[in-house]
């Protein structure tokens, strides 16, 4: 073994051009494949986060009961049921449920957070237009941010703080329609509320024109009901504990609400499919590059053995065993492959790290590269195996030839 | 005198897809330590093939070869390699030194993978090269040596493992008469003191005055030429 290692090192140093060319092949291949794999993994992780953010929340509610064409009267019926009502979507009228249901929903293991929500349609007293008011518990933002609004949606002014009273946020479109700015006032149930912020929530399952803290919303809605609310809500905003728990969380919440409905965009499903296509394409490219580079490195390794077929024949004639020759060639191949792959992977990491901000600021903002030992081990194994095969296979071919014949033919 | 190499009824044929070519048949002879035996024959008569079989690099089709009491045909490839490394010295036409190795490394190669320490190996190779007058050229590559020096490196490589049998395939084929004479005279002391035997395959360039016996390979059979041996040629 010592002789083989010594001879292998000597052979590599004896042919610096060939050794460097082979080494460079491994460095290039490992760097490219490793960088691509790291970027792919980082991309997938960040996309996963985005999908988690976009697709793992839902709204639970219970549709109102009808008798014929009319709503079944309840204790807290709207005073103007033609224009004003609790609702989930424009055409879906909802009934009231105890606020405490949010606590029960939160206890489901697959649920990260749940919060009650009031969504009521008002008729403006002065000009008669209808608009919606959303009331939320201001300190309970975990379930709120994905379903209704979050401080990140602010485009002017400030978001509602838990202690804020008598002030509102307005949605951007509503603000544009009624020429509202920060400092303007909004008339809700004949009470004027200064606007402290304008939000752009984008696409969310719950949409309101005006947002208020719970006590203000409850007080204003109470003015438009036949009886005040008794710790009740008409919507429950729920955040699942990750993408993989989303479906289960929805099923369990539905079980808690026998007459309930779930409203979710479920955008995670198509997003996962798109992400799958994207990652499959990238994996294919990585595989193709890996194969090309492996063929290059293997070819170089193969040539370095084949060009020594006469020397190998001489050594066999002198009494070297096939196993000794094979051992030396394998050590040469492994030294080149392992050294080249290690240098290549370090290079690849640096390239990926430097290239990330240029490729995607979103990914770069997501934090460090998604380094993992499995990728490193896979690269090392793939390149070493290729080098090993490329080094060992020609040896088998060469040792099957009659050394005396090889020596004689090479002399001619 | 003890018999070092005993060949009996040796036969070799090459089979191709359409034909079977008989190289030689019924070849029998013996060599004892201290003998110089020449196998003479034209190109293509199978001299090199025979040396290949005697060194264990090739296998015969029929017959037996017993060397130093061991039957070659019953040995594995690995055992034959071991036998070559320990008991057989080979010298080739054109010397066949490894071009990218120094003179010392070329000689040392024979002692590698045999459990000999690098220091001992180096000392032994250096000693043989010194003995042959190459003490100053240890680290030179073959291309940096004259033909005569290359030939001495080849002889050193052949002698470094103290072989019992030296097989020489056209050792003087590619060199001038003076260099050829030097090759033989460098090998002869080991033979004449009885520690080894020399078997030379030649098409005629070798000086037959050095030979104790000359065997001629012709028409696929071996014929004793000078009558000193007991080998019996069988005419085709």
Strand ordering within the main sheet of chain B: 6-7-8-3-9-10
Mean pLDDT across residues of chain B: 84
The tally of domains of chain A stands at 2
Largest sheet of chain A: 12 strands, mixed
Q: What is the CA-atom radius of gyration of chain A, in angstroms? A: 35 Å
Oligomer: heterodimer
CATH architectural name of chain B: 3-Layer(aba) Sandwich
| Average predicted confidence as pLDDT of chain A | 83
Shape type of chain B: globular
Helix content of chain B: 25-40%
CATH fold naming of chain B: Rossmann fold
Span between termini of chain B: 31 Å
Q: How would you sum up the global shape of chain A?
A: rod-shaped
Q: What top-tier CATH class of chain B fits best?
A: Alpha Beta
What is the straight-line distance between the termini of chain A? 35 Å
What fraction of the residues of chain A are assigned to beta strands by DSSP?
15-25%
User: Any low-confidence stretches of chain A, pLDDT <50, length ≥5?
Assistant: none
Poorly predicted parts of chain B? 227-236
How many domains in all of chain B? 1
DSSP strand count of chain B? 10
DSSP strand tally of chain A: 16
Characterization of this structure:
The complex is a heterodimer of chains A (412) and B (236). Chain A contains 13 helices and 16 strands. In chain A, the strands form three sheets. In chain A, strands 1, 4, 5, 7, 8, 9, 10, 11, 12, 13, 15 and 16 form a twelve-stranded mixed sheet that branches. Chain A has a two-stranded antiparallel sheet with strand order 2-3. In chain A, α2 (16-55) runs antiparallel to α12, α8 runs parallel beside α12 (373-399) and α9 (309-317) packs across α13 (403-411). Chain A has helices at residues 2-14, 16-55, 101-106, 144-147, 172-177, 214-222, 246-256, 268-306, 309-317, 322-359, 361-365, 373-399, 403-411, and strands at residues 57-61, 66-67, 70-71, 85-89, 92-93, 97-98, 111-123, 130-136, 154-157, 168-171, 185-188, 191-199, 210-213, 232-233, 235-240, 261-263. Chain A is an alpha+beta fold. Chain B has six helices and ten strands, in the order βββαββαβαααβαβββ. Chain B has helices at residues 47-54, 77-87, 103-108, 118-131, 147-159, 177-192, and strands at 5-15, 20-31, 36-40, 62-67, 70-71, 88-91, 165-169, 197-202, 213-218, 221-224. Chain B has one domain (5-97, 148-232): Rossmann fold (3-Layer(aba) Sandwich). By secondary structure, chain B is an alpha/beta fold. At the A-B interface, α1, α9, α10 and α13 of A face α1 and α2 of B.
